[in-house]
Amino acid sequence: MDTTRLEAFSDGVFAIAITLLVLEIKVPPPDTALGAALLQLWPSYLAYMVSFVVIGAIWINHHAMFKHIVRVDGMLLLLNVLHLMLIAFLPFPTAVLAEAFHRGTDEPVAAAFYGGILTVFGIFVNLMWRYPAHEYRLIDTHLTAKKVRKIRRLFLVGPIVYAIATAIALVVPWLALLIYLLLNVFYLWPRWGHESAPSRMTPL
């Protein structure tokens, strides 16, 4: 089957998940000084910003990936559903992260939990590319083997850096958050374009 329904369903999940993020930012109670209370919500703002960039980068790369994936089968549908399960779950670790920084306790655990979820994200992104790209199973056969390998290498950066940052989070949570953010800023612009060639050059 073609990719139309998969992409439409995925876009809906992305949209809902990115909207739910803002619901974790609670309005200050009426019996507090509004200005000070709004400033004290900075951990929620920070967690929201990081997760918004994360989901935005994943959506952009998901869209770019399916410019090259021209058909889907049952296994790819399953991988995509599992990937979307994590997307829908992200507001929860975002809330855990914000709450830990609000309290000033357990920041390393919260940052590592968040990073662990991102690491699993990265693994699923790699699976979602490697499976359809293997022997041109589901991708455009005019895409060069060099380009396929380039995309694979770029995706592999994600889970490796996430895993390293997750370990760092247990010691320096602030540094881990910065790495999470910078990595997704890097991924905000897909770096493989839509190049194709008349025929594939070498087997994958």
Number of helices: 8
Order of helices and strands: HHHHHHHH
Which structural category do the helix and sheet elements fall into? mainly alpha
Give the number of domains. Answer: 1
Any idea what the radius of gyration is? 19 Å
Poorly predicted spans: 194-204
* Overall residue-averaged pLDDT value: 91
CA-based shape: elongated
Estimated share of beta-strand residues: under 5%
Helix % is over 70%
Total number of β-strand segments?
0
Ends: how far apart? 23 Å
Would you mind describing this structure in some detail?
By secondary structure, the protein is mainly α. The chain has one domain. 70% of the residues lie in helices and 0% in strands. The chain is built from eight helices and no strands. The chain has helices spanning 4-20, 34-39, 42-65, 74-89, 91-103, 107-133, 145-169, 173-187. It is elongated, with a radius of gyration of 19 Å.
Label this structure with key terms:
single chain, 204 residues, mainly alpha, elongated, disordered C terminus
Helix and strand arrangement:
Layout: H1 4-20, H2 34-39, H3 42-65, H4 74-89, H5 91-103, H6 107-133, H7 145-169, H8 173-187
Helix pairs in contact: 1-3, 1-4, 3-5, 3-8, 4-6, 5-6, 6-7, 6-8, 7-8
How would you summarize this macromolecular structure in one to three sentences?
With 204 residues, the chain is mainly α. The protein has eight helices and no strands.
